[in-house]
Automatic annotation (TrEMBL):
The keyword Aminoacyl-tRNA synthetase belongs to this UniProt entry's keyword annotation: no
Protein name (Swiss-Prot/TrEMBL): SAM-dependent methyltransferase
GO terms for biological process, alphabetical: methylation
InterPro entries, A to Z: SAM-dependent_MTases_sf
Native species: Roseococcus suduntuyensis
Keywords: Methyltransferase, Transferase
GO molecular function: methyltransferase activity
PANTHER family xrefs: PUTATIVE (AFU_ORTHOLOGUE AFUA_2G14390)-RELATED, TRANS-ACONITATE 2-METHYLTRANSFERASE-RELATED
Amino acid sequence: MPSLARLAAGFIPLTPYAYQGRADACCICGGRETLPLSAHDRRLKRLTTVICAGCGLIRTDPMPTEAELADYYRHHYRADYQLVGRSPPRRHLARTRAEAARRVALMGLPAGAHVLDYGSGSGEFLEAGARAGWRMEGVEPGEAYSTHARGQGAVVHPRLPPEAGPFDAITAHHVFEHLRDPLAVLRELVAALKPEGVVYLSVPDMGPNRRPAFDRLHFAHVHGFVPETLDLLAAQAGLVPDPRFPRERTTSVYARGEAVVAPDPGLAARIRAGFNMTTPLRHVASFGWLAPTLRRLSRDVRDSFRP
């Protein structure tokens, strides 16, 4: 469990996060030139976020090291980012069960399909897939939520076993934005996929939005995607969008295939132009944060009492 001191420090504005990081190249295109995006995150803490000038991938800079991220996600993430303890709250369960049902319907796999959920959290999709007759396995490094999922009868690994698979489908819902090297992980997953298998990827859409840039960022999300960069990531791992499945911007199902997807050198500027670049001080002084905060609180209350 995180110490109260560390948890409290995560909410002190205008202070940096407790990490050193490393100035890495872009994990997709290898470029080092960047455009600045924001010097703060949604808590008004100091966090530098940039856009790769070569391909448009958004990333934290400097990037947390492997050890720093592993420690954060193992011990601090749930309390720091989601304000929850060792057990998933009712609002979380209500949302993840609804999302799991949508994902099962989208995938439409036959009974007996072997499915891996990478970043399986508290296991709602594992449970929904099992009810559909699929053979489910999960990968979840977070100790608290993986323990909860195992308590519901799910098979959950702390990391992908070397002998895992082959799988008919692999899913990762709002996981790849948390990964230090999403390309390396995706290639590892593709290696565990059957030749005719599919990969479902869903990440937050960092395309044009009215919210201030800093309000869409947090230490937990070390990468940010738009449809073009998600497709570029997939292509580098030998995947192409599967036309059999409907797509919703940064939620897409991929199959094996070769695609000529070159980085778009103009994408970074277009992405930055789509962000609301108002300053934290102006946003706070204008009370622009009040209505969204009330909406989030209302949603939390509603979902906390949802059956």
